[in-house]
Amino acid sequence: MADFLEFDGGFAPDIETMDREELEACLKEVQERIADLDEREPADMNSEEYEAWGDLHEELEDLADEITDRLEEMA
To answer: Would you list the DSSP string of 14-63?
Structure first.
């Protein structure tokens, strides 16, 4: 498997049970993971590695959106 995918480690927080402080910390971590992933973008856009990178990137972006939505609900 691609080297850049190993950092994920099954990161799957339960955002429904988190308070505001936990959500903000989680959002920060997700944003850091996205930034790290951006630095490791594979050069070959037609490779399986790039497809896996893109899938993970999309999952993290979706999670960031869900956390942001949850924070807005709490406001």
So the answer is: -GGG--HHHHHHHHHHHHHHHHHHHHT--S-TTSHHHHHHHHHHHHHHHH
Q: How many angstroms separate the CA atoms of 31 and 27, rounded?
A: 6
Q: Are 33 and 60 in contact (CB under 8 A)?
A: yes
* 62-71 confidence digits (pLDDT tens): 999 999 999 9
Q: In which band, very low, low, confident or very high, does the pLDDT at 14 lie, cut at 50, 70 and 90?
A: confident
Q: Where are the domains of the chain?
A: 15-74
Write the CB contacts of 41 (distance below 8 Å, at least 6 apart in sequence).
50, 53
